[in-house]
Automatic annotation (TrEMBL):
HAMAP family: MurE (MF_00208). It holds the Pfam family Mur_ligase_M. This is UDP-N-acetylmuramoyl-L-alanyl-D-glutamate--2,6-diaminopimelate ligase. The gene is murE. Residues 260-390 form the Mur ligase C-terminal domain. Gene3D superfamilies: Mur ligase, C-terminal domain, Mur-like, catalytic domain. Its EC number is 6.3.2.13. Belongs to the MurCDEF family. MurE subfamily. Keywords: ATP-binding, Cell cycle, Cell division, Cell shape, Cell wall biogenesis/degradation, Cytoplasm, Ligase, Magnesium, Nucleotide-binding, Peptidoglycan synthesis. GO terms for molecular function: ATP binding; magnesium ion binding; UDP-N-acetylmuramoylalanyl-D-glutamate-2,6-diaminopimelate ligase activity. Meso-2,6-diaminopimelate binds at R311, D335, N336, P337, R338, G388, E392.
Amino acid sequence: MKWLIRKLKTIWWRVKSVWAIRHYGNPSKKLKIVGVTGTNGKTTTATLLYRIALELGYKAGLVGTIENLINGEKLEIQSSTPVPGTTPDSITLTKLFSQMVKENCEYAFMEVSSHAIDQNRMWGINFTGGIFSNLTHDHLDYHKDMEDYFQTKKKFFKMLSTNAFALSNTDDEHGKKMLEGIKAKKFPYGFSAGEDFHGEIKKLDFDGLELAFNKTDIKSELLGKFNAYNLLSVWSACNLLGFDMQKVNKILENIKPPRGRFEHFTSRGGVLVIVDYAHTPDALEKVLSTIREIKSKESRLIAVFGCGGDRDPLKRFKMGRIGAALSDIPIFTSDNPRSEDPNKIIFDMKAELYPEDLKKVKTIPNRHEAILEAVKLAQSGDIILCAGKGHEDYQEIKGIRYPFDDMEKLKKAFS
């Protein structure tokens, strides 16, 4: 039954895509559109490309998880997508592109979700290029398995024309396969060897990153190895778009992360506080590993996180294991429980913990109380990571969205 419903939805969205193009025309043909897909890194990559284009003096638009922007102006849109906060439906997309054309935009950068690909929401869009970041455990409440998830992402790259570029992270196990059998011009990037766009990490600490991309020195205030990959994909795309790379290199020195993506501040008492959207096993592991790589031996890492309700339950025990193993004080709490009991979600997170890790775990279902506990425990030099919600300014409980902003709660708790 689940697969029949998915198939019917796919047909319905394809019909809407066809209608949208015929009714509104195809404004995407007048724009240079770059789509970014993958499990993690979509928001950062698309947002940085958009900001760089504006800094270079181009008019540009952004279609993203956090916000939709045209030339710096935020747009409030009503989308009828079945999954809120992701790629808009085809009619909304067409309207967005039409408005970008009216505002004389030359470029558009957009996140491309697996749901949108599967449901043909992007049928008829003329992409200048596509970027693949990585593929890890996520959305298996929707996709049959990881192979189905991969093949859905691959459909986006098969959409690209012979004139488009396909930029893929070949350090990821799916990166090379993503480039196989497609029409677009293929460009691998990574930190291994032999890529068209090759990166090296020279320095990684809490002051930022020092990198070399194709032997060009790059500095950035962004933190962590995962951001080194994001920066390399952005730098590579800028090359392929023909941007002035001397100016791009300078812009990257001071560019800021999107809201809720490794966003951080230091309290007056000397506690480093990090808010990140990490809500998958891979993303949580990368964020925690990054912090552990660059923190001092004396610093304690306090991790506050949970798992979403009404979503893939198979990742809960994985996230529980990762969070418990890689933090000194793991605090299991609520994310967006939606219709589920938060205690049941936390029970699933703790189900397969090793005994030594289970002893460390604090269980506080109320997210606000969990944050207050983390602040109370933190001493000068410690690090608090609040993960899972990132930019979200609400918490969804029993069908109601209550105002809740992790960064706001943390700053208030330290004030």
